[in-house]
Amino acid sequence: MAGNAVLLGRKTPVQIVQPVNWLRWGVTLTVFVLSMALLVLSVNWLVDPVHSPLRSVKIEGEFKFIDKTQLQTTLTPLLENGFFKVSVAEIQGRAEAMPWVSQASVRRLWPDRLQINIVEQQPFARWGEQAFLNARGEVFTPVAQTAGLQLPLFSGPQGHANQVLVNYKRMGDMLKGLGLVIDELHQDSRRAWRLKLSNGMAVELGRTDPVKRLARFINVYPTILAAKATAVIEQVDLRYSNGFAVRWSQPVSDEETG
Fold this sequence. Notes:
With 258 residues, the protein is of the alpha/beta class.
């Protein structure tokens, strides 16, 4: 029955293609570009020093040695970029580079203020002829020396400042019971230790076990050396394993040396 034949086979799927809405995409892209341009323009306007100037810069701290006028002169050129563009890190670095400044902190205060807090160096001792040492064992060298500071004198190899400070505190505590104070403490290039006491006596401790040798000095001082300390003793040399040597500033009799 050719006239009634039915053809069987797999159906071919029909794919419907949606037309691209170029108008919608164009509008979206235009809005995005305009928004970004407006944002950039707004940011540029906001950070422009003309529109966001620094109207107030406050410097705080206790100044005993720092020249505040010099500090202001040093920092002023860094404050011209306005509230947003001013470099907090650069101001901090420039301030801390000044010899008498120990630490500086800088922060912005909305909408137009800058707060600068300065911590001044506190000299603990003189370090050599030109520098000072703070309580953290850090060496700093002011441009101009400050007269009238009654500070102990330290010296030592480069990089040994903190070790000298630690030994000064330890030895000073040991000598308190004798009523003696360390005026000078030195470590030479051979790492040998020498101190000078407030009564003018020099004490040689050498390189090995300086604290142990000082303890030996403390043991003999009250009974042997104290009565003659300010009068005739110039130096006590403890660089001996089982004793010490005394150098007298003036001749003494056998009876006095006992």
